[in-house]
Amino acid sequence: MQDHKRCPWCGSDALYVRYHDEVWAVPQYDSKVLFAKLILDGAQAGLSWITILKKQDNYYKLFGGLDPEKIVRFTDQRLEKILLDPGIVRNRLKVYSVRSNARIWAKMYNEGTDFSEFLWSFVGGKPIINRYKEMRDVPSTSAASDAMSKALKRLGFKFVGSTICYAFMQAVGMYNDHLITCPRWKAVQDPALLP
Prior knowledge:
By secondary structure, the chain is an all-alpha fold. The protein has one domain: Endonuclease III, domain 1 (Orthogonal Bundle), CATH 1.10.340. It has ten helices and two strands, in the order αααααααβααβα. The protein has helices spanning 14-22, 31-44, 49-62, 68-71, 76-83, 92-110, 115-120, 143-155, 162-171, 183-187; strands spanning 128-129, 175-176. Helix 2 packs antiparallel against helix 6 (92-110), helix 2 packs across helix 9 and helix 8 crosses helix 9 (162-171). The chain starts with 13 loop residues before the first helix and ends in an 8-residue tail after the last helix. The mean pLDDT is 95.
């Protein structure tokens, strides 16, 4: 086995490296945090992740901390103002989907559905530990991301295709897709990270 080294996808950009080393594939169970991460992954559609990562702080600032309970109260006027801000991806469908997705999150919450439990159910409630040696081995979708995408779309969520769902699942630790040569592959399996 080759020497331990970081997954190559993050390159050498300091922001990307920090994201790889501290955030990506760490199991996340907070319903609001999961909502925020799903929104950011949806914003990525058609773009590179580094683009969103560089705009992430602006999303949190403009969208009330990406808190769905705040976003549901956003008016069209406020969304139109957000659309003028170059600090985010200024795509009307994506911007308005943040509010419509927040409304669905709130509806689920009010009906007693825990968003975290709902999402984690697609992987049986615990991380799937993959053992990939090369980047080319890592898939862009899975049966679980297909199922999650279909379920979210049925509920009315937007920008939740299977590829977006798989990227989201990797990011929040539902899949550990760090290469086995990467030190983070083992680190994110720390039992202290599990509920």
